[in-house]
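Hey, can you fold this one?
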Amino acid sequence: MVTKFYQHTLALAFAVKEINKNQKILPNLTLGFHIYDSYYDAMMTYRTTLDLLFKSRRFVPNYICDTQKNLIAIIGGLSSVTSFFIADTIGLYKIPQLTYGSFPPEEGDADQFLSFYNMVPNDRNQYMGIINLLKHFGWTWVGFFVAEGHGGEKFLQTLEPLLSEHGICSAFIQKVPRVGHIDNLSDTFGLFSDFNLSLTDDKVSACILFGESLTIIWMRGIIFLRDFENKEGSSFRKVWIITTQIDFILKDLELFQGAISFTIHSKEVLKFNEFLQNLKPDKTEGDGFLQEFWEEAFDCTFPNSSVPLEGNEPCTGEERLESLPTPQFEMGMTGQSYSIYNAVYVVAHALHAMYSSRLKQKGMVWDKKFELQDQQSLELHSYLSEITFNNSVGETMSFNGKKQMGGAFDIMNIVTFPNKSFLRVKVGQVDDDALESRKIIIHEDMITWHKGFNQVVPISVCNDCCSPGHQKKRKEGEKFCCYDCAPCPEGKISDQNDMNDCFRCPEDQYPNRNKHGCISKTITFLSYEEPLGISLASIALSFSIFTTLVLLAFVKHRDTPIVKANNRDLTYTLLISLLLCFQSSLLFLGKPGEMACLLRQPAFGIIFSMAVSCVLAKTITVVVAFMATKPGSSLRKWVGKRLANSIVLSCSLIQASLCTLWLATTPPFPDLDMHSLIEEITVQCNEGSVTMFSCVLCYLGLLAFFSFLSAFLARKLPDSFNEAKFITFSMLLFCSVWLCFVPTYLSTKGKYMVMVEIFSILASSAGLLGCIFAPKCYIIILKPELNNKEQLIRRKN
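Sure. Predicted structure:
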């Protein structure tokens, strides 16, 4: 006899006794009950069910009943198998069956068990509770010990997909033989070798145990054999996660210290503890189990015992239930007993509602005795489905549309003591009807772990977690919970343990060196304050001053032959253009604003086009002048300022038209370059249209090419002041600079792109200034004796 389950019988008797004393429920009607033991056996279950239906012998403890027994409902059984066996027979007679220890049948079986009412919550709540518990502690590598049979198969079929969905793997699945009697436990220990390998897996700290109450005794025997063979004793440590179907009926639970058990939610019922304390064998009649329970629990024998045990002391009847160890008997109402207690009240309230409805129809009151009539159990179904009331502890009792009682599962922590007793400590709850944030509650600080873990939260993973800065890399042929760790690729980070994939930082941040965090990028641009900006600005201003001095020198000596040669006005225009070229580079320095972005590229394109047009006009003027000296030449009319002015104006106007079209359609604007540099955000000017910018550069290159070509052809024409040779060198330098500019500009990032363009502007402008005007300045300033008409004629001759 499993003494602990005797409380189920007492809970039923206590509920019936309360109802029979309560004048507000079923007045003048006395409830009775019969209790049968199924012995965990199918044949006995069917036989006892038939006894309930057809035998007329009485079993009426604690009250006088003169009527023949009438079966109105059945409460039971403890296991799902027993409940289904009972339903096979009871279902034919449509007698309501309220189960208290098993879980609801599968969805497909709902029509088969129309008389089935479940006093326990839906088992899916427990499954999700297990999943959330594993996720809470980070246990991704867990073992399973599952009792054989339909219930175990259903448990695995339901739970395994949920495990995969939430990133948890089963390290192993061991089938535990289903044992109906304690006497048969030793016959199944031959499976020890199969279980030993699973129990010695040190990576698996969390093990889920599913079965019936005898399953835990079988597991204790297997672990004892393992410890005896390996001589490891108390070194064995696991966190056992035990499902609701299993109750602790062991006297020695040291190996299960720190276990986490899911139990049916219960509350302490008033006066039940007092009822247990007053229970005495000599004061209780009609209870066929009490004497056997008393002898088994207290190791004593009554004088009238049917099977007296030698060596046992005689029972006095004064023994106290509270003195029994917890594994033998609990004074607090367990979850199953609480469900039985509520089931009795559900039937009583349904009967009360049914009789009240009848009396109301007939205009009668509760002033006479009533007896149950045939077919009333069938009528009771409609009242059971709609029943709603608050029980004695204030909890609402009602069935949902699937005939399931709402409620929660309590999460209990098992704390064992040297005297072989244990204490259940409630450390959480699973309630699917609660708000999302309250569906599962776990108080981790209240949990007492197995002493082998030194009160540190156990770890149950296949391998060490991947630290931040790494990502999981799956191992071939292994489950997804077993993996290697690979560093995050360049430009990505992971800021948590065990991340499947690394990710990129926000655009305004970049990965740190260890790739486990992001650092804000610094905002940069080519400013006047930094050394590079100061250097470029100084060079631009220096060349501007030098160009101004050259211009002033030419204006001062404007009547000298060297200035008057090759079109004096064109020379002034070229010098002014070069001066503007040097100053236009300053538009590229500093933080780009709307106006700066709008002006700098068009200004650069138009000013440079004007400068190159002046050079082109100079060379073409020289070529035309010498060709016009030939007799009968038609080019005489083009000799003079008109040709030069036409070339400068037309070439500059084309570039100005391109820039105007550019500004009108897709003008440049300030922009942030987030991606070119890893650690910096560059404030730059977006050109708006790369095509238009390319057209401006291409047109400028075309002018430079024709200038170089015309100067190259005119380089050997006889003239003391012929600039063609110097223009050839200047345009060669100009073209070289801008040919190098294109690949350099495209391969440079950030503010250095601006630096490349400024350098190209300064270098090409300085090339024009130096190659064309340096020789003339040398003569004007250092060799003025060569700057006269006589010297010009003498050198020509």
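The first strand starts at residue 74 and ends at 75. Let me know if you want another pass with a different chain boundary.
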